[in-house]
Amino acid sequence: MRNRRARQRALAIGASPRPTGDRDPLGELKELLRTAGVATAGEVVQVRSEPDPDRYLGRGKLAEVQAEVARADANLIACDDELAPRQERNLEAALDVPVIDRTAIILDIFADHAHSAEGKLQVELAQLEYNLARMRGLWTHLERLGAGRIDGGIGTRGPGESQIETDRRLARDRITTLRRRLDRLSRNRDVMRARREASTVPTVALAGYTNAGKSTLLNALTGAGVAVGERLFHTLDPTTRAYEHNGRRYLATDTVGFIHKLPHQLVDAFKATLEETRLADLIVHVVDGSDPAPERAEAIAAVDSVLDEIGAGDRPRLLAFNKIDLLDTDARRDLLVGEPGTVGVSATTGEGLAELRDRIESTFEETLREVELLVPYADGGRLSELHELAGDLERVERADGVLVRARIPAALRHRFADLELDGAAPASE
Fold first, then answer.
1. pLDDT tens across 205-230, in order?
2. Three-state DSSP class for 32?
3. Judging by DSSP bridges, how do beta strands 394-398 and 401-409 pair with one another?
4. 3-class secondary structure for 25-88?
5. Does the predicted TM-score (pTM) go above 0.90?
6. Of 121-130, 319-328, 378-387, highest mean pLDDT
């Protein structure tokens, strides 16, 4: 499959407002093509407020694209936006070259990178929903079969239309089946998540722009051994690993990376996966600190937008600039001074990891409340739960039980309300 792709040479095209700064308007599209194993043979950008609704580019610009296809010896057109079926058909008719859009490229990458059963189902669902609206164009040759005959004739009345409806019905049936199977998997994950929540272990989600180094950071924090790679969307399936810091256990989850213009069908198909981010106690927003400032700001805005879209916009958040080992001293200082309340780390060298762990701990510390509890000796399970929840705690053995002084999350204090001592009249030891 990879060898087949490597023979493809794509002309990258885009329509966007006048670019600002030194940012390459098609830089992300070219990186997506590289990840998919497709060579970029050239590029054409038309400056316009919005794409043409019929052909994506203006008529005059299409002539320039046609000439560039011949000059660059391209055998594929790659568009930087999601195309409507009408735009895709008109572009292919005008240029006589296969056309793919941004969503098709991302779906292809997802299909290549999905390894778990659930990930493969999610990709197939997204592909079917994307292709459902494009099925009409597959059967136009059958529709033309009877177009020139009076009343069509026997055997020519609507064969194309019949095939379209058959394919659409099969696709819808498959979509229904996939959604049912994904719902079952989601319920299973809900059970496992409920067990994690019942254990009262704080959860941290590593979220961020794709290729920001989230998987490498997870490995550095937890020793997870998650595979990493310099490719967009290298991680699709969430990986959760535990680590301990100052006596408290934490669960950290590496999630799928975000990107500009993340297709809505992908957000919908991967909603179950993205829930790991939405339900986390803390989101560590990992940013590639070595990126130029304009690209860094755009990446942060793109991630914030997706977090809002999946319902995670109100979760506590910590901004972590990764890859600071690639910056000199002045650049590091400017990076962190310009973004107060952040932490700089290098998942590769380990620099800043201690501070990151401390910052994660302090964020949780803000939610803790001091309690004084008397735990009966017969209730050893709750004592174990307190140890796991509070980490370090003070305990005194008494005749009637164990006197415990600890700091626990305010939201979980109700679980131990029956064990609390009256602060006005503390029991004697």
1. 998 888 888 888 999 998 866 655 55
2. helix
3. antiparallel
4. CCHHHHHHHHHCCCEEEEEEEEECCCCECCCECCHHHHHHHHHHHHHHCCCEEEECCCCCHHHH
5. no
6. 319-328
| Average pLDDT of the residues in 385-399 | 81
Residue written as tokens 């043409």? 52
Strands (E), 105-200: none
Q: Which of 183, 216, 241 marks a domain boundary?
A: 183
Which among 193, 251, 196, 249 is positioned nearest to 218, based on CA atoms?
251
Q: How far, in Å, are 53, 406, 429 from residue 394 at the CA level? A: 68, 6, 13
Q: Are residues 326 and 386 in the same domain?
A: no
Please tell me the distance from the alpha carbon of residue 329 to that of residue 333, in angstroms, as a whole number: 6
For residues 233 and 284, membership in a common domain is answered with yes
CA dist 40 and 38 (Å) reads 7
| Domain around 251 | 201-365
Domain stop point among 326, 346, 365: 365
- CA–CA distance, 156 with 147 (Å, rounded to integer): 9
Tell me: do 219 and 292 sit in the same domain: yes
Number of domains in the chain: 4
